[in-house]
Amino acid sequence: MQHSGAQQEAARQRTARHRPARLRILDAAHELMLTVGLARATTKEIAKAAGCSEAALYKYFASKEELFIQVLAERLPRLGPLLSSLAAEPGRRTLEENLTEIARQAALFYEQSFPIAASLYAETQLKRRHDEAMRQMGSGPHLPIRLLDTYLRAEQAAGRVRADTDTFAAASLLLGACAQRAFAYEAAEPGTCPPVDDFARRLARTLLGGIAVAPGPS
């Protein structure tokens, strides 16, 4: 016998209530930040949606800024860990494969994070306060560029990226294009934006044309 929609929803809510409080808070924060934006997603509303008190929320997260950073780290594509792991092991797989995967993860990350953070840009004082809090926590939107720069310099030392390459500029170009994709194609006609896998492959190949060491004679 099939459950009705109401019964299925009730079962889902019972299951959700039995999840650890920290996970419920992250889920609620992610959902509210997506629907109403970071600026309007208060800790009070997040706690209410998670089925806990605001005091309980602060047992796990010191501030809304910390909660936002953890939402990015745990609920969105894991761009930072990918870049860190590649920088630690340069030479693994081909340079094109690595840059394609970086571009794919970055495009997905910005696509999903842009709707969350966009509301900050409408409130200058709030954005300034938020940026300062992230700097104090050693986080911020500049970190992926720094991590990709570190990876490219590691590949440069391994001889797979040209010695004269400006690795910071290359990192900025790749990640900037991924961020622009999330912004520029939001209002575009359906079908005009290349699928993310195609976009990542084309972006990586274009960047490679300017930075990769040419293969030696066979």
SSE-based structural type: mainly alpha
- Radius of gyration from CA coordinates: 21 Å
Name the poorly predicted regions.
Answer: none
- Helix run count: 11
The major sheet is characterized as:
none
Our measurement of the CA-to-CA distance between the termini, rounded to an integer number of angstroms, reads: 68 Å
Q: Shape from CA axes?
A: elongated
Q: Could you spell the SSE succession in H and E letters?
A: HHHHHHHHHHH
Q: Report the helical percentage.
A: 55-70%
Care to count the β-strands?
0
Q: What's the rounded overall pLDDT mean?
A: 86
Beta-strand percentage?
under 5%
Structural summary, described in words:
The protein is built from 11 helices and no strands. The protein has helices at residues 5-17, 21-36, 43-50, 54-60, 64-75, 79-88, 95-117, 124-136, 143-157, 167-184, 196-211.
